[in-house]
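Hi team,

As requested, here is the filled-out complex form for the flavin-adenine dinucleotide run. I kept the field names the same as last time so the parser does not choke. Let me know if anything looks off before we queue the next batch.

— J.
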Amino acid sequence: MTESTPLAELPVVIIGAGPVGLAAATHVVARDMEPLIFEAGSRPAAAVSQWGHIGLFSPWKYNIDQAARALLDPTGWVEPNGDYLPTGAELVAEYLAPLAATPQLSNTIRTQTRVIAVSRVGKDRTRTPGRGDTPFLVRTQNVQGEIEDHRARAVIDTSGTWESPNPLGQAGLPAIGEPAAREAGLVTSPLPDVLGRDRAQFAGRHALVVGAGHSAANTLLALGELREAEPSTRISWAIRGTDPASVYGGGDQDGLPARGALGTRLRNLVEAGAIEVHTSTTITELRIAAQTNSDFSTTSATDIPSALTITGTTSAGAASLDADLVVPTTGFRPDLSFLREIRLDLDSIVEAPTGLGPLIDPEHHSCGTVAPHGARLLSHPEKDFYIAGMKSYGRAPTFLMATGYEQVRSIVAAIAGDQAAADKVELVLPETGVCSADIGSSCDVPSAASVADDDGGCCGPAPVGEAEPAAEGSGCCGSTPQPVTLGIPTGLEHGRGAHQDAR
Ligand SMILES: Cc1cc2nc3c(=O)[nH]c(=O)nc-3n(C[C@H](O)[C@H](O)[C@H](O)COP(=O)(O)OP(=O)(O)OC[C@H]3O[C@@H](n4cnc5c(N)ncnc54)[C@H](O)[C@@H]3O)c2cc1C
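And here is what came back:
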């Protein structure tokens, strides 16, 4: 590849080799273009591997991209049972790793190579003439610290949001002292492997879990199990709401037994006193190397030293708690810093592409029922630049891999100039929409009956952007919460707006 290589012969750069990045690469290959994938981790699907101990809620049949299947089938790959719910580790071992190892993809993936900037050759974002016909310039840095510039005909950013968790503090800002506590390793990853890889970090220690979603529930249950084996383990749980009940779901009455059981186990742990719940708590400060222990109150200090003193505001005023570790289950946000020279069109609330943002805003939506959508909805003023996958949902937590697979099929068709295929949204998700094993429930999704009907139901999503916008949460959904059947929920019925008290 030289300076004079025509634009159309340059590779399509894909940022991140997660499920959606790898799917994008397979579509690029299928259209006889050349993918070049940069992956910051030491191996493909590095982010999924970090939460490999967590069980997915979507069964295999929704987790495999069609173009990827076509690449894998001739290799003797055995497709897993479509109804089985894999763990993240199984998703990597039985699908993503074999996909990355196919001859078509293996030589196109550069691991341990982080994209640190994207621009256009010779043009910062203020330069307009000839911009759309100018190659992209993608700057990377490898683990040795070497920086390299690459030219590309198009760029698909599928770098996810796993590496940029929301801060613990109030107002979307880090708490005072939070960066130092993170630097010191006292704030863990959002989903630590409490019973496996990270066990020693938690056994016999005091962990504070912050947040009220699915991740918090998973971590609290794992800590509860660890506490049975290591009784000196102490578990605290801080939430902004006044009552943790919304996290428990419907128990025995729940439409989904697995979800109900999860909530019931969590409730039992709390009621048995294994978990100390701190409601109405907003973290304001983290201070390293506390000299005394306290209990989110100013009265019950002991003299056992802990690694951190966490201060917060509560309904009773300012209070503090000493703990050894904080587990931040407060959601994620996209890292847009390396896209500074790219002309983006993002929703001012969710930081998703403008057309998509209102459909997934967690203030109004509680589940991942957004219809499949493609290149048109995901396009930016910067021609041939797209954000896809988890990152395309910005700060909304309800993304599904299957949605991402349809995104990149359409995006790659658009890059290849096949606008008809790009516009023809192929419904990968069942027409009834998807949503599932959360620990809350939602009316944003079809009822079990409409799922069985397979007729789209009154809430069934239509393709958006390319056709009519989906009327999620509207129309005949009415106001009665329905069981969720597949998807990452916010944990709140009808979105945060309906629960001013929550989180
Ligand atoms: C715990 C958990 C459970 C989930 N369960 C489900 C489920 O059951 N079903 C479902 O459909 N969805 C699920 N999701 C949501 C979503 O589908 C997954 O997060 C999925 O992994 C998103 O794929 P992705 O390719 O967009 O991003 P990721 O999987 O996050 O991949 C992004 C990749 O980009 C790399 N990267 C990041 N920054 C850079 C950079 N600057 N340069 C180069 N590389 C970079 C990362 O190392 C990573 O490998 C779950 C998410 C989580 C966190």
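Two things worth flagging: Confidence is low (pLDDT under 50) at residues 298-304, 430-463, 465-494. The chain has two domains: 7-163+332-423, 170-328.

Thanks,
J.
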